[in-house]
Structures are given as C-alpha cells and as structure tokens.
Amino acid sequence: MKKYNKLIVLIIMFVCTHFSLYATDTSKIETEKFKSWMIAVNNEIKSLKARIKALQEEIAILKQSNNNNNSLNTYLSSSSSARTNACLANLRTYSAAVEMYNLDHEDSPMKSLNIDKLVKEKYIKSALTKPETDCDYITEGDLTSDGKIKCARHGKANR
Ligand SMILES: [Zn+2]
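The joint structure predicted for all components is written out below.
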C-alpha cells in the first residue's frame, strides 16, 4: 500500500507540475499574442489619426479657397453691377441733355446723339466717362419722337 501511495503522490505531483507549466505556457503565449495584437491595433489607430488629420487639413484648405472664390465672385458681380448702373446713369444724362437741346432747337432738333454738339453748346460739360471700355452710346430710332439712346454693352435705361 505504501508503495502505491508513493506512486499516486508522484503521479499527482507530476500531473500538477505538468499542468501548471502547461497553463503558464499557454497564458504566456496568449499574453504575447494579445500584446502584439494591441500594438497592431494601436498602430492602426495612429495611422487612422494621421489620415484624419490630413483630411481635416485638406478640408480647411478647400473651405478657405471656397471662401476666397465666393468673395471674389461677390466682388466681381458687385463691381460689375456698379458699372452697369454708372452706364445707365450716363444714358439718362445724355437723354436729358438731348431733350433740353431739342427744346432750344425746335427748328433743327437732334435726331441722334451727338455728344460733341452737346459739349460744344454746353448742355454737358464734357463727354461722360465710359464705365467699361466697350461701352458705346448709340441711338435707336429718332430722338425727336420715341427714339432712345442705348449702350452697345449695357442696353437701354428704364425711363
Ligand atoms: Zn455701357
């Protein structure tokens, strides 16, 4: 019996040590696996963060250029409509000058716009500045009836 006891104890001890060794080994392997997996995940997170940062910078640049474009367009359209208004004001000034001229010259009225004549006879101080280089003042019809002065670029004044 004593021999058997000893043998059983030995077997138990062997099993126990073997099992504990095995257990520590597998847990060590699992821990290493987990650590390397965590490192891989961290690296992935780092590269994603870098990508997000790059995208945010790109978005900021796009927003900036979009704002610049908008303000440039606003500037261009506002200055363009300002030039149109200046041109239409010129047309009204010329029309009023021709009307006055024709009141004074019933016998030989101005049928189409003659800026030089209006300046010479002091109905206007000088030829008006053209807001655009391609503004050209032309007469449509007969100014003694329902004719109108218009700009080749900007059209007629509503009057
Ligand atoms: Zn014009």
